[in-house]
Amino acid sequence: MAYCATSHTPHISPKSSSSPRNALIRSRNRLTVVPIRFPPKISSNVLKFDRIRPPIRASSAQLMEQNVGSRVPTIVDVDLGNRSYPIYIGSGLLDQPHLLQRHVHGKRVLVVTNTTVAPLYLDKVVSALTDGNSSVSVESVILPDGEKYKNMETLMKVFDKAIESRFDRRATFVALGGGVIGDMCGFAAAAFLRGVNFIQIPTTVMAQVDSSVGGKTGINHALGKNLIGAFYQPQCVLVDTDTLNTLPDREIASGIAEVVKYGLIRDVEFFEWQEKNMNALLARDPNALAYAIKRSCENKAEVVSLDEKESGLRATLNLGHTFGHAIEAGFGYGQWLHGEAVAAGTVMAVDMSHRLGWIDESIVKRVYNILQAANLPIAPPECMTVEMFKSYMAVDKKVADGLLRLILLKGPLGNCVFTGDYDRKALDETLHAFCKS
Ligand SMILES: NC(=O)c1ccc[n+]([C@@H]2O[C@H](COP(=O)([O-])OP(=O)(O)OC[C@H]3O[C@@H](n4cnc5c(N)ncnc54)[C@H](O)[C@@H]3O)[C@@H](O)[C@H]2O)c1
Ligand SMILES: [Zn+2]
């Protein structure tokens, strides 16, 4: 399994005549689109989730009702019995020390962050942890920045710091940064002394809408993404939306790939809202961002509370990720952002769903349109070959007894299945449509 040799920025338009989009359109007449009846037959290795609906509603009116100027956080609860925790969402939350301090149980805190985020927010977080509370002492470990450092060697730096500074079981670890820091700090907290408390302060859209919620923590292995890790829930998640002001545009778009995912797999009203408000999201309209974060967290919190350890439903949050993780590993971690790889992977999963006759072509078009509107790639990098996809997909965590299970769309928009019961030919056709060799 060789990494792609070249590095380039993602394509954001379909390849000309050989584009998968054209391939789809060309193949339209060859495909038999089977009318979908509901409820469908559910075979033993197919899990269908269209009947689990979130008790939430999206509307532009609601967007206008958001009071971004208010410093009262919106709270979304992740309901996991005695491991339940709040997600605080709002502007200026790092200036409200009580929100963090109530979740620090011992007297010593280790903030885990990186070389980019530390100069921007570390002082603010230290103040939030210590203002009016002189009994708490805060130390920090500043890791190198980037997906390529999400590995055992970097993780060791957290343990080195914690052990050299003689942190004990009453320690609280605080993850300050994007998904890479959150996943690594969470895993460090899960493993250090067999588990210490931790708090997530996500500072990217990706982390605020997805990675900081739900307790998946871990690191990469050279042979695959996130293969080493633990389920480990934080004490709280604090989303200060002001931190997004310093985030580069490309990172904003990357996070939006996960926002689109929630709409596609389970929340059609949210998808429709995104279709109308994508420009506002990209322009960092604070109301639009706050609404998208809240709605995403509500969706994720509901899925996680129904299936914390991913026995079925939670796997649907990985729409596009099996293809996407292959791109991340095959291209070399960090060449494409996670959300960019997920966007291209989502297009591939949607293409395959259409080849199987499980979704209407209008859905395929809407997916292309929304991802393009978000400036995200809609095809994998050209260096990815069919063989590379196959070898990386073979080590995906969703392989069970040698069978690759995928999240595919099925039925009207907002419905998906997690299944190993699909025609292998469709997967092959999708891979060949998107790869030159
Ligand atoms: N645990 C989960 O459930 C889950 C879910 C989705 C993604 N992930 C993981 O998350 C990672 C991707 O997360 P990401 O997209 O946040 O990437 P990231 O953590 O690499 O952050 C992106 C970049 O933005 C910088 N940054 C962070 N906050 C900033 C800010 N406020 N201002 C300026 N720069 C800032 C970072 O230093 C980095 O350079 C992947 O490793 C992925 O596997 C995990
Ligand atoms: Zn993801």
Mean pLDDT: 86
CATH-wise, what's the superfamily of the largest domain?
Dehydroquinate synthase-like - alpha domain
CATH class group of the largest domain: Mainly Alpha
What is the spatial order of strands in the main beta sheet?
Answer: 5-4-6-7
Largest sheet: 4 strands, parallel
Bound molecules: nicotinamide-adenine-dinucleotide, zinc ion
Uncertain runs: 5-46, 50-66
Instruction: Work out the radius of gyration.
Output: 21 Å
Number of strands: 14
Shape: globular
CATH architecture of the largest domain: Up-down Bundle
CATH names the topology of the largest domain as Dehydroquinate synthase-like, alpha domain
3D structure, described in words:
- This protein has 437 residues and is an alpha/beta fold.
- The protein has two domains: 1-58 and 257-437, Dehydroquinate synthase-like - alpha domain (Dehydroquinate synthase-like, alpha domain); 66-247, Rossmann fold (3-Layer(aba) Sandwich), CATH 3.40.50.1970.
- Helices cover 41% and strands 16% of the residues.
- It has 15 helices and 14 strands.
- It has helices at 20-26, 60-65, 97-101, 117-130, 152-164, 179-191, 205-211, 249-266, 268-282, 286-306, 321-331, 338-355, 361-373, 386-394, 424-434, and strands at 46-48, 74-78, 85-90, 108-114, 137-143, 172-177, 197-202, 216-221, 224-231, 237-240, 399-400, 403-404, 406-409, 416-419.
- The strands form five sheets. The protein has a four-stranded parallel sheet with strand order 5-4-6-7, with helices on both faces. Strands 1-14-13 form a three-stranded antiparallel sheet. A three-stranded mixed sheet has the order 2-3-10, covered by helices on one side.
- A hairpin with a 6-residue loop joins β13 (406-409) and β14 (416-419).
- α9 runs antiparallel to α10 and α11 (321-331) packs across α14 (386-394).
- The radius of gyration is 21 Å and the shape is globular.
- It starts with 19 loop residues before the first helix and ends with a helix.
- The relative contact order is 0.15.
- Mean pLDDT is 86; it is low at 5-46 and 50-66.
